[in-house]
Structure formats: structure tokens, C-alpha cells
Amino acid sequence: NGLTQAAHLWGAYVPFFAEHGYRVLTFDMLGQGESDKPLLSAGFDRHAAIMLKLLNKLGLDKPFVAGISYGGAVALRYAILYPDQLRGLVVMGAFSELDGRLKWIGENLYVGLASVGTEYLQNLFMAYNFSSNWLEKNETIIPVLRRRGYNLNDQYALQNLMEAASNSPSFSHELPAIKVPTIIINGEYDYITPRKLHYIILKGIRNSRLV
Predict the structure, then answer these.
(1) Of 30, 133, 166, 197, whose Cβ has the fewest other Cβ atoms within 10 Å?
(2) What's phi and psi for 172, nearest 5 deg?
(3) Rounded Cα distance, 20 and 14, in Å
(4) Measured in whole angstroms, how far is the alpha carbon of residue 169 from the centre of its chain?
């Protein structure tokens, strides 16, 4: 899941895959949803290592791994660090480096979160994550979605995650280590992670395609 998101947001997709014979596992990363809220930062590599331990504990061999945004960076790091521990990769709205624009956006999001609180970040992401059409059609349920987000998210945990992301070095040069089939998904109007960042991933992973 991405920043301020939680495992239940994948729920709408689970039936489709289950009906096609797949076992689906969703989980909250550290600092998100119902998982522990770390006092210290937890970077992409730590999340990837925890995911490997979880999969081993459950006895799942070579799963397909999917992640979006912050979780997309975690999925990329997982595929780089443990290339023999997955069957395929799906990354959405992801990034392997922070260009000047993304770094600037991240710093301003962090300042807003620290100054105003979780509600600010949650409300701001609504406009980034959903189209005008969706927001207009679902106006009546948005207050419920926002309250659920407030209850699941912890301000200091989110700050720690954002600090970890901002301190993460570029790993674009490591992308060729990913050998499994990879689908890269980028929304046409993705403001935070635009097409440029996805072309970098596409160029780095030989067995990949951009949708």
C-alpha cells in the first residue's frame, strides 16, 4: 500500500484474483494501518526484509508481488534484494529515485504533515489519488473514508516513513537485477509520480512493459 493507505483498500480487487485461482495476501506495512507504528524510521529495504520473513513464515514460495507508490518502491527493492523470491512484479505509481520535483513535493508534504497533522495529508491525497469524476460521484461516502483514514494513520509514523523515503538513495542503477516479468502501471494524470519516473523503471528492467 501507499502512504496513508491500508490493506483493506485492496479488498475490491481480491475477488477477481481469487476467482481465477490465486491466493491473495494483503498486509499493512510498518507504520501503516493496523501494523506497529515504529518510533524510528523504516526504509524500503527494511520493509522488503519484513515482507520476505512474512512470506517464509506463511510458506509461500515465489509469489507475484504488487505495490503502489511508497509500496511500489518497496516492491522494487524486494525484487532487487531477493530476485529468486518472487515470480512476477507489478509496480504502480512507483519510483526508483527522487528527482528534483518529487523531492520538492515530498518535502512540502512533510512540512504540511508536521505542521497541521494527518488530516491535512489525508485530505490533500484525496485530490491527488482520485479523479474529479470519482470525487463528484462519491461525495457522500468521502467523509466515512476520511474518518477511517484518520483512525488508521499515526502522524509520527507517517513522518518517519516520509523521512526514510527522503533519505533513500537512488537505486535506478540496480533495476537491471530484476529478472522476473514486470508490469509497470502509471495513471495518465498521476501528479506525484509522472511518466518520466516510470520510463526510468521501464528502461532499467529488461523484462518489463508499461501500461
Answers:
(1) 133
(2) -60, -35
(3) 10
(4) 17
C-alpha cell at 22: 490465486
What length is written for the chain?
211
Contact assessment for residue 192 and residue 69, using Cβ atoms and an 8 Å cutoff: yes
Q: Determine contact, residues 110/166, Cβ cutoff 8 Å.
A: yes
pTM of the full structure = 0.92
Q: Are 9 and 28 in contact (CB under 8 A)?
A: no
**Could you give the CA distance from residue 6 to residue 26 in angstroms, rounded to a whole number?**
9
- The answer to whether the beta carbons of residues 79 and 86 sit under 8 Å apart is yes
The backbone torsions φ and ψ at residue 89, rounded to the nearest 5 degrees and listed phi first, read -135, 140
Q: Which residue carries 508534504 as its cell?
A: 109
Q: What is the DSSP letter of 177?
A: G
Find out whether 12 and 141 touch, Cβ atoms under 8 Å. Answer: no
**What's the CA gap between 176 and 203, in Å, rounded?**
9
